[in-house]
Amino acid sequence: xxxxxxxxxxxxxxxxxxxxxxxxxxxxxxxxxxxxxxxxxxxxxxxxxxxxxxxxxxxxxxxxxxxxxxxxxxxxxxxxxxxxxxxxxxxxxxxxxxxxxxxxxxxxxxxxxxxxxxxxxxxxxxxxxxxxxxxxxxxxxxxxxxxxxxxxxxxxxxxxxxxxxxxxxxxxxxxxxxxxxxxxxxxxxxxxxxxxxxxxxxxxxxxxxxxxxxxxxxxxxxxxxxxxxxxxxxxxxxxxxxxxxxxxxxxxxxxxxxxxxxxxxxxxxxxxxxxxxxxxxxxxxxxxxxxxxxxxxxx
Length: 299
What we know:
Elements: H1 8-29, H2 35-38, E1 40-46, H3 54-63, E2 71-75, E3 80-85, H4 90-103, E4 108-115, H5 117-145, H6 155-184, H7 190-220, H8 227-259, H9 265-284, H10 286-292
Antiparallel strand pairs: 1-3, 1-4, 2-3
């Protein structure tokens, strides 16, 4: 049996370094927000015949369309371009469309959307509210579900530990997105928020499995045993299940990251990092932290 709880200082130091680095990245770099959150236009298109280079497209936007400061990326997998620029009306969009087709007759528009600043601000606000509500709701639910496991740790402490592990599991992939935004101009969009919410759901699932086994062991044993030993045994009993289930998901995500659509690359990467972090926290953070919260007069 692995002494996971006994080596809690090691796990806490590793997590502290990772979370600290993530928070520093978020604080220094911030998030590069997509037009969905700050307002702007997204234009995805292809030029199947005689596809121009990325620099040629950038020059055309600045010189012929008069769109300065546009961010244009090329997806070599789908042989398409994605342009991000300021909000424009549908009439201006049609003017751009006419000019582009005159330049490249094979031009094919895949999608176009233009969002005003007020709509983007509302989406950003709703995304933040959604994450906060999930954090609070999960914590309250865990506290209620473990109300019968009151010895020696109160049920609300289970909820508190779950809240801390959720913060741990979300902050690390969020910090990664902040770094990628600074280095590779990766933008936070609604897909990123969905990925973080999925990570939270997966994380709390694994944590509850470990906590539930701890509750069963506490209720089944009438003799007084050190709480840390009960927690450590519970973690070991669920270790194989947690690792096997999580590895199955990780293999799928790695496959999607390699051969999946490039438009979902960072969505999948966020899930992959978050799921891996969730495995670590449910085993090495949640349970040792729970053992630390027992009263001093308990064994």
